[in-house]
Specification:
It contains five helices and 13 strands. The chain is of the alpha+beta class. Strands 1, 2, 3, 4, 5, 6, 9, 10, 11, 12 and 13 form an eleven-stranded mixed sheet that branches. A hairpin with a 3-residue loop joins strand 1 and strand 2. The radius of gyration is 18 Å and the shape is globular. The N and C termini lie far apart (37 Å). The model has no long low-confidence stretch (mean pLDDT 92).
């Protein structure tokens, strides 16, 4: 029996949920035979219709918000489209990432229908910060030891695979990224460390609530495999917790 989804917040207008890694949000041309979708699971769990207002890639886990009625969906959709949402992600990458940097690389959209070379290059900006790092006395690549970093990413735009593509282009691919990463490191984490997923999680979201005007700030914990990895690497102090709070717009949102 499928375990219930973890609800981070629910009120009369919206619900926030922890999306598991590997689960598509809804049916699409990317489904490739998938029979289970977040939207349907959440609808069945709540016993009512839900409306998606933003997206997460299939392999990415973390906080997602759904509206509970069409008018709220329209208002929330505008909030996301107009970039009035603060987002925070955690990623495990190969190498010792920059202490702090703004990645400003235009990206071509990937719609799966036309060659990427025919798509326009669009503005894409991500702020990154190294939170911690580890060096393992194991040769995975050509070096006798292997180094990895815990990176915080705050995307200021919302291009498809933006964080994955930006970090890879900067030289720090996310572990578990089959398309933009490196296979030997992905296999090492899957076979030796028990993490076969993309190590990218949406852990924070903050926006003006569509009813009442207060700011809603959401925090989302990690799944069991990422939590175990953080503890193994000595990164337990960076583990996020499930939380939700409404506060005045003038107060700080995501720390």
């Amino acid at each position: 029996m499928t375990e219930p989804l973890t609800l981070l917040h629910r009120d009369d207008h919206l619900v926030a949920v922890h999306k598991p890694s590997g689960l598509l949000v809804h049916r699409s041309k990317l489904a490739h035979g998938a029979s289970e979708f977040l939207l349907q699971r959440l609808r069945d769990q709540l016993g009512q219709r839900v409306y998606p207002v933003h997206r997460l890639d299939r392999p990415t886990s973390g906080v997602m918000v759904f509206a509970l009625d069409s008018s709220t969906a329209a208002r929330l959709g505008e909030t996301f489209t107009e970039r009035r949402v603060a987002k925070r992600y955690l990623a495990v990458v190969r190498g010792i990432g920059p202490e702090r940097e703004r990645l400003d690389y235009a990206l071509r959209e990937e719609d799966g229908c036309r060659p990427k070379s025919e798509m326009p290059a669009l503005e894409a900006v991500t702020d990154i910060r190294r939170l911690d790092s580890v060096e393992l006395p194991i040769q995975v690549d050509r070096y006798p030891s292997s180094r990895y970093s815990l990176m915080e990413a705050r995307p200021l735009t919302g291009r498809r695979h933006q964080i994955r593509r930006h970090l890879s282009r900067r030289g720090y691919p996310i572990i578990g990224d089959a398309k933009h990463g490196k296979g030997n490191h992905n296999r090492f984490f899957a076979d030796r460390l028990g993490c076969s997923r993309l190590l990218l999680a949406a852990v924070g979201l903050s926006f003006e609530h569509p009813a009442g005007g207060q700011r809603l700030t959401l925090s989302c914990g990690l799944d069991a495999s990422m939590t175990a990895l953080f503890r193994r690497f000595g990164w337990a102090g960076h583990l996020p917790l499930d939380a939700a709070r409404c506060h005045a717009a003038s107060e700080p949102s995501i720390p």
